[in-house]
Amino acid sequence: MKESAGCGVRRAEWSGKRRLHIPHPALRTLLVGALIACGGQDSTGEPKVTVTIPRGSTFEQAVDSLSARGVIAHPGWFRLYARARGLPAALKSGIYTFPRDDAWSDVVATLKAGRGIEVRFTVPEGMMAFEVAERARALLAIPRDSFFAAMKDTALQRELGIRANPAGVEGYLYPTTYFVPVGIHARDLVRVMTREFIQRWPPEWDAQLAPLGMTRHQVVTLASIIEAEVRYRPDRPYVSAVYHNRLKRRMPLQADPTVIYAYGRRLRRVWEKNLQIRSPYNTYLHPGLPPGPISQPSDSSLLAALEPAPVGFLYFVAQPDGKHIFSETYAEHLAAIRTTKRLRR
Questions:
Q1: Which of 61, 110, 153, 241 could form a disulfide with 308 if both were Cys (CB 3.0 to 4.6 A apart)?
Q2: How far apart are CA 282 and CA 263, in angstroms?
Q3: How many angstroms separate the CA atoms of 40 and 63, rounded?
Q4: What Å distances lie between residue 291 and 164, 258, 332, CA to CA?
Q5: What angle do CA 283, 285, 288 make, to 5 degrees?
Q6: Residue 102, CA distances (Å) to 45, 49, 241 in order
Q7: How far apart are CA 210 and CA 45, in angstroms?
Q8: What is the 3-state secondary structure (H, E, C) of 38-76?
Q9: Rounded to the nearest 5 degrees, what angle is found at the Cα of 108, between the Cα atoms of 102 and 113?
Q10: Sign, CA torsion 94/96/100/102
């Protein structure tokens, strides 16, 4: 036994199978109270070390890891303190950083909350699932196959209220910046992203579905097409109007982004021959909306899908600057195409 210089109680270190014995309950309570007071020492400015607590680790194994890395100097007393704070039942696995000889209260709070090292993971608006999967592989070391398998989890699809389909939760991986634990698993990442989508979908949007005669899945699908088509944000409600008007007239949407999605990769340009690809996502060959979303739409595209501009446009063509020319008749549309060709020249 040796006495700590920083506290008014005696702390002990021991090895082998010897166990601390405190015979009287009152004395036990007194010592734990003293240890709690010791657990609040400030460790600001201390050099930090990394400690990994693997999934499935026991409380004893976690304490051994903390001791081996120098986070706690007296593992025996720390076990007593941590048990009094309920750590064994609340221990979270993860990768953590601690100052050496950190305050016990901070160590316990961190391990109970699971606040380990986090990685910044950003998903831009309009990304397709295969691109999100590649980013997850590069930044989070998640295998692409694992990510796609997690996307196709039928239980998760039921939670989102969508029917099981080969694309899984494409369109519901909310585009934003996340801070996720190092070593996060594919299923956990997909769940975090889809739950973010659910939280960001306002209840008042549900009330707008019935007047449109659409389900949420159909709105998300349409929004994903709008997202892929539009670079100039103010055009979104007008592009939405074109698609809504075409759907009402049972005209094919003829949306190039759906052809690109059918190829499963980004095409630098859509040529006439590309329009013949056989896929249920090809809106040149199949009327109506495709089976599901083709990308992760932004809030502004979702809103545009819900609130199309009150216009009668049926056509649009993109100009070199990203803005569109909208037309109500095919003759006007052909004239707009000639205009854009002149501008490109």
A1: 241
A2: 10
A3: 18
A4: 11, 10, 31
A5: 45
A6: 10, 10, 60
A7: 59
A8: HCCCCCCCCCEEEEEECCCCCHHHHHHHHHHCCCCCCHH
A9: 120
A10: negative
d(CA 39, CA 7): 10
Q: Which two tokens stand for residue 314?
A: 């049926």
72 close to 104: Cβ distance less than 8 angstroms: yes
- d(CA 103, CA 338) in angstroms, rounded, equals 72
Going residue by residue through the chain (345 aa), what tens digit of pLDDT does each one get?
Answer: 433 333 433 333 333 344 444 445 544 544 554 554 444 444 455 577 888 888 888 999 999 999 998 899 899 999 999 999 999 998 988 888 888 888 999 999 989 887 677 889 999 999 999 999 999 999 999 999 999 999 998 888 887 777 777 789 999 999 999 988 888 889 989 999 999 999 999 999 999 999 999 999 999 999 999 999 999 999 999 999 999 999 999 999 999 999 999 998 888 888 889 899 999 999 999 999 999 999 999 999 999 999 999 999 999 999 999 999 999 999 999 999 999 988 887
**CA distances (Å), 13 to each of 20, 37, 84, 100, 252, in order?**
10, 19, 19, 17, 77
- In single-letter form, the type of residue at position 45 comes to G
Could you tell me the pTM of the whole model? 0.74
Angle, helix 216-229 to helix 256-263, in steps of 10 degrees: 100
